[in-house]
Design a protein that fits this description.
This protein has 265 residues and is α/β, with parallel strands linked by helices. The protein is built from ten helices and twelve strands. The protein folds into two domains: 127 residues, 3-Layer(aba) Sandwich (Rossmann fold), CATH 3.40.50; 130 residues, Rossmann fold, CATH 3.40.50. Helix content is 39%, strand content 23%. It is globular and about 60 Å long. The structure holds 2'-monophosphoadenosine-5'-diphosphate. The site of 2'-monophosphoadenosine-5'-diphosphate has 16 residues, from α6.
Length: 265
Amino acid sequence: MTDHYAVLGNPIAHSKSPAIHGAFARQTGQDILYSPLLAPRDGFREVVDAFRAGGGLGANVTVPFKEEAFLLAHQRTPRAEAAGAVNTLVFEPHAIVGDNTDGVGLVRDLMGNLGLELAGRRILLVGAGGAAKGVILPLLEQQPETVFIVNRTPEKATALADRFGCRGGGFGALSGEGFDLVIHASAASLAGERPPLDDAVFNPGCLAYDMMYGRETPFMAHARACGATVADGLGMLVEQAAEAFLLWRGVRPDTRPVMDLIRAA
Ligand code: ATR
């Protein structure tokens, strides 16, 4: 019998998750069906309940429902607790377990696919919303020298930094500091803007990583012009999916061919 999974979001038609999980299933010989499910903004819980009642075994959750999924879960993993958000639900017979695979997906992309050592490195995280919050703990676990959180609204950055025991502030607080890895997790690109970073934040040999994918963002263009190596978030997307697939199916898919497939599409 085919096992059912889904990705819930609003909007959802653009999601690459069905193609990614479809490729994982073919590669590993797992008999699963993975569908996109559009949830009304005020009807997330109802869609989850109906999917689960119909036999669904698990779901990914994307914008704007990750915080709601966190509240809906009966049990949460430590990495979901740290993120304050859930992107993967596991439907057990008597409980919904909430996990967050975004951070580990980013770290696996940085270290595994891009070959970056994080220990002892200086990391700048741009943004203090949900996307940023989800990756702080997994980054800190790699024991970088610094994780500095910078944000348009400085108070949000300092609050997050205090919670995780790292540094944070507004863009003015960077005062000429340089970093080996700059991760863009703000929504500036959606407005066609880039975060107001000085050229000096990009150390020689710096990797500039944008969590967005699919097109060159103004942040990426700026970083490239400053001499940084640039990567988009497609690898993170595929790696977080692989981690969810592992949770559900107990098998870790090989991500490289799937990244190539999604990029070619
Ligand atoms: P997400 O869950 O995608 O992170 P969010 O929680 O709305 O979304 O957070 C968006 C982040 O992008 C915030 O850090 C926001 O900064 P503020 O805290 O000051 O709102 C940041 N952001 C949004 N538009 C931006 C812009 N034009 N320039 C710089 N940062 C921006």
